[in-house]
Give the backbone structure.
Amino acid sequence: MLCVETNRLLHGYLDGELDLASALALEDHLRECAACRERFTGQQALRSAVTGKARYHAAPAGLRQALRTRLAAEGRTRIPAWLQPWPATAMAAAALLIAVTAWVTVHQPPAPTQVAQAPAERKLVYHVNSSDDVATAFRNLSNLLDAAPRTRVVVVAHNSGVDFLISGARDKAGDPYQPAVAQLKSRGVDFRICGNTLGRRNIQADRVIPEAVLVPSGIVEIARLQAEEGYSYIKL
Amino acid sequence: MAANDRCRRFERLVLPHLDAAHNLACWLTRDEDDARDAVQEAFLRAYKFFDSLRGDDARAWFLAIVRNACFTLHGRNRPPGIMEVLDEELHGEELIAPGPTPEAAAMESVDRELVNAALAGLPVEFREALVLRELEGLSYREIALVANIPIGTVMSRLARGRRLLQEAILKRLGKEKTNAMR
């Protein structure tokens, strides 16, 4: 084998992609030729530098979560249940029932606060995890209820989004939140507040305004509403 | 296929490759926000065309979609010429002739930043081949699938890419030395 022939083969050999005959021929050549051997060692060192030192950009947790949520929504809405042949629907329903039963056993969510709804009714869960979202959420909800009064809405507050449900809380303009919350509540909007967040921030449960219901975990509640009660997820 | 089954199958086959997708997108676009957009776009496109996945290589299939999303995203403001891929087969051996031999000791001493900068500075087709091979451990056949090139081109692209990378690293090392001596 000539040195010039090894230029390309060296890489195939390094990558474990050569056929046996070429690999053996190259090994023979490397035993005899110090210059090619040195090049091979150099390539191995280059590879170690890249595999060991180049940055690996793993997917951020937020991206993974966003895609999972999106996928869950696709799974529910892509093909309406009534379009599916019934055995598939029945099997999916059975699988879902098993999953939900297992889930309920483990997580013990709060008792459902509403009676069964007609299937055609829209159900939306608003995820509020920042105080900055509150004004937008209120405006959005008010418009939504004007346009579609029968929509079931649950607002789940979590992280720094819980502040507006604490008694005495005021917005940036200095106006109290509670009247707006009470008004939306009277139009059928449920407010749920994350117990984990309260615990972490040392906020006593009795400081939560009476319009809001305490749930153990905001995120689990959002997941439960989607998985179990057919809510669609909205993040502002 | 029922929506739920399709969803679960997609989750089982495609979601495990999210890290690979994001890594490839970051290296191709060299921008975390663009990478995120490209991965999200690719994810939805993959779900839409999930039925076109044949065989068992979901990773290569998904990465091919990610790659296309990256190039589509950058298609509008890409400087002309950057994507013009030389036909390695025509240009033959001079392109993959050995460059300066990288001294093993020098390679061991380079720091992460230097390797990252050198790799990021390579023309995109070589960067792509190297990332898929060295960081994702894809086979030539899989790289050929992702980059949509013949297997023979994979080997020459890697050979040339490694030569360019090695030159870039040595050049940067030389600069560091010069600066240190001043």
About this structure: Chain A has nine helices and five strands. The beta strands of chain A are 123-128, 152-157, 189-194, 212-215, 232-235. The radius of gyration of chain A is 29 Å. The longest strand of chain A covers residues 123-128.
